[in-house]
Design brief:
By secondary structure, the chain is of the alpha/beta class. The chain is 33% helix and 28% strand. The chain has a six-stranded mixed beta sheet with strand order 6-7-8-3-9-10. It has a four-stranded antiparallel beta sheet with strand order 2-1-4-5, with helices on one face. The longest helix has 18 residues. It binds adenosine-5'-triphosphate.
Length: 229
C-alpha cells in the first residue's frame, strides 16, 4: 500500500450475497485525489462503494479505507469508519420531517458530539462551505433538488472527512444545477484536500471536469483516460 493512499484495494473480490460482482479489484486512490467511477447499470459501482463504507463485507482480498482495514471491520467499527468518510447519494436521503439545521445536528449527535455551541459552529461552517449560509431553518421540501444536494454534501463534510464517496450525486439534477454541484465538489477537493470517488453515468461531466477515470466492465475495474470516455 502506498502510504499516501486514502483507499487501497488489492485483489479484492466484491460479492452481493453469494454472487461475485467484481473480480480481483486493485485500486489505489491518493489523498486529495478526485476520481470518477463509470460503468453500466448493474456493473457494480454501488457495490464497490458499499464495500468501501462497510455496507458490504470484504471477504476476499485486502482493503484499507481511511486507515481502516476492511478485513478487520467488526460491526462495532463500522460507525467509526463512517465518521471518517463522507457519503453523498443521488437521492439526498435527508430526514424530511426536520429542517436543515436539525438534519445536520442529528448526524453530529449520532457521531458523538455533545456541546451545543460547538455543534452550532460546525453546522454554520459546513452550510457556509456549500453556499447555504442562513438556510438552516428551511425544511427539505422547501428546497430545490440542487439545494437539497448541497445539504447532503454539507452533511458529508461534518466530520472533516479525508474521503467522500459520491454515488451519482448529480443523477437527479438538471444540467445547470449539475454544473454548480460539480464546481462545489471540485472546490472542496482543492481547498480541503478531500479525496472523492464519484460514480456517474454522465460522461459529459467528465469531459467538462476532467479527472482520473476507472471503468467497471465485465466484473473488472480498469483504469482509462478521461479522453477515452
Ligand atoms: N442488495 C442486493 N442483493 C443482491 N444483489 C444485488 C443487490 N444490490 C445489487 N445487486 C446486484 O449486484 C450487481 C451490481 O449492482 P450495483 O448496484 O453495484 O451496480 P451499479 O453499477 O451501481 O448500478 P447502477 O448504475 O444502476 O446504480 C447487479 O447485478 C445487481 O443486480
Amino acid at each position: 500500500m502506498n502510504p499516501t493512499s486514502i483507499v487501497s484495494l488489492s485483489n479484492a473480490n466484491i460479492y452481493q450475497g453469494s454472487s461475485l460482482v467484481l473480480n480481483n479489484v486493485n485500486l489505489e486512490v491518493g489523498a486529495g485525489e478526485f476520481i470518477y467511477m463509470i460503468g453500466r447499470t448493474g456493473s457494480g459501482k454501488s457495490s464497490l462503494l458499499k464495500t468501501m463504507y462497510g455496507d458490504i463485507y470484504l471477504k476476499e482480498g485486502s482493503g484499507v479505507v481511511a486507515g481502516f482495514n476492511l478485513k478487520d471491520l467488526s460491526w462495532k467499527k463500522i460507525p467509526l469508519l463512517r465518521r471518517n468518510l463522507g457519503i453523498v447519494f443521488q437521492d439526498f436521503r435527508l430526514l424530511t420531517d426536520r429542517n436543515v439545521y436539525d438534519n445536520l445536528e442529528f448526524v453530529l449527535k449520532a457521531t458523538g458530539w455533545k456541546d451545543k455551541a460547538l455543534m452550532k459552529e460546525k453546522i454554520e461552517n459546513v452550510l457556509t462551505k456549500v453556499g447555504l449560509k442562513n438556510k438552516g431553518v428551511k425544511m427539505p421540501y422547501e428546497m430545490s433538488g440542487g439545494e437539497q444536494q448541497r445539504v447532503d454534501i454539507a452533511r458529508a463534510l461534518l466530520n472533516n472527512p479525508k474521503l467522500i464517496l459520491a454515488d451519482e450525486p448529480t443523477g437527479n439534477l438538471d444540467p445547470d444545477t449539475t454544473d454548480e454541484i460539480m464546481q462545489l465538489l471540485f472546490n472542496i477537493c482543492r481547498d480541503y484536500q478531500t479525496a472523492f470517488i464519484m460514480a456517474t453515468h454522465d460522461y459529459s461531466i467528465i469531459q467538462k471536469y476532467p479527472a482520473r477515470v476507472v471503468r467497471i466492465e465485465n466484473g473488472e475495474v480498469k483504469e482509462i483516460s478521461a479522453a477515452g470516455v
